[in-house]
Amino acid sequence: MESVGLFPVLAVSAVLFATGVGGVLTRKNALIVFMSVELMLNAVNLSFVAFSRHSGMVDGQVFALFVMAVAAAEAAVGLALVILLFRNRVTVSLDDLDLMKG
Amino acid sequence: MTEAVLFYLFSLVAIVAGLSVVLARNPIASALSLVVCFFFLAADYVLLNAHFVAVIQILVYAGAIMVLFIFVIMLLNLRDDLPTPLLEISRRGLVGMAVAGVLGTGLIAALEALPVTAAAQVTESYGKVESVGTSIFSGAYLLPFEVVSVLLTVALVGAVVLAKREI
């Protein structure tokens, strides 16, 4: 990867992260918001792996694996919450969830 | 040279798929775009000598997590009650896109200020199961690793408790 360098990889990661942020802020569907969060986590993983390759140590890759494990836990609990929500309110639109006046 | 071409190709597809996740009307299309994005990110990981992370990315993310997502989308059958326009030009849409654009350009501008240094030379075993496993199990990451296994158990129990009708 010497021919590319560090900056392009981090730029790709930044673009993906910004895309995820845009999805979280723009979309109404809770599932798509979840997927945007996964996209942001993956962008961060790409940064970890890029820095890991750049520094020549595997620590960044270990961190990427930890991020994946946390993302798996988050997806399991989050999707359970979405199912629970759908069962009680028959919607997954975040606009309809104003019980706490947010 | 081929490495650079492949990297830009894979990254371009990953970014387009990522945009498609956010812009797609149908949640299923979103989820499938996300799978494509994960696959091409895994290809980028391979180019970055992170072979084990690439394999785990495909197995865990594209395999397990996305199957869970698609399973839930199909279970809820959301297709009909979401007539979301492709780009809702609402105030929130504009604000969201503006924030994302400012954040992206700001991040890239900040990254450009990074000092350019040469990448380290890596050995043949770098990023394979052996080196990553050695780093996890014989270094400072052994306790975090065990904590993550407890976290996964807790998440599993929590998901079952939340989704079950009666315990």
Question: What does it look like?
Answer:
Chain A is mostly helical. Chain A has three helices and no strands. Chain A has helices at residues 6-26, 30-55, 59-89. The model of chain A has no long low-confidence stretch (mean pLDDT 89). Chain B has 167 residues and is mainly alpha-helical. Chain B has six helices and no strands. Chain B has helices at 2-23, 27-47, 51-76, 91-112, 129-138, 142-163. Chain B is globular. Chain B starts with a helix and ends with a helix. In chain B, 26% of the residues are buried. Classes of the chains: A mainly alpha (102), B mainly alpha (167). Chains A and B meet through α1, α2 and α3 of A and α1, α2, α3, α4 and α5 of B.
Briefly characterize the structure.
The complex is a heterodimer of chains A (102) and B (167). Chain A is mainly alpha-helical and 102 residues long. Helices cover 76% and strands 0% of the residues of chain A.
Secondary structure elements and pairings:
The complex is a heterodimer of chains A (102) and B (167).
Chain A: H1 6-26, H2 30-55, H3 59-89
Chain B: H1 2-23, H2 27-47, H3 51-76, H4 91-112, H5 129-138, H6 142-163
Radius of gyration of chain B: 20 Å
Percent in strands of chain A: under 5%
What's the SSE pattern of chain B?
Answer: HHHHHH
Number of strands of chain A: 0
What is the mean predicted local confidence, pLDDT of chain B? 87
Structural class of chain A, by secondary structure, is mainly alpha
Sheet of most strands of chain A:
none
Content of β-strand of chain B: under 5%
Largest sheet of chain B: none
Q: Largest interface by residue count?
A: A-B, 72 and 87 residues
Distance between the termini of chain A: 47 Å
Query: Helix fraction of chain B?
Result: over 70%
Task: Give me the secondary-structure category of chain B.
Answer: mainly alpha
Tally of individual helices of chain A: 3
Which stretches of chain B are low in confidence, meaning pLDDT under 50 for 5 or more residues running? none
Indicate the low-confidence ranges of chain A by residue numbers. none
- Coarse shape of chain A: elongated
Contiguous helical run count of chain B: 6
- Tally of strands of chain B: 0
Shape of chain B: globular
End-to-end separation of chain B in angstroms reads 59 Å
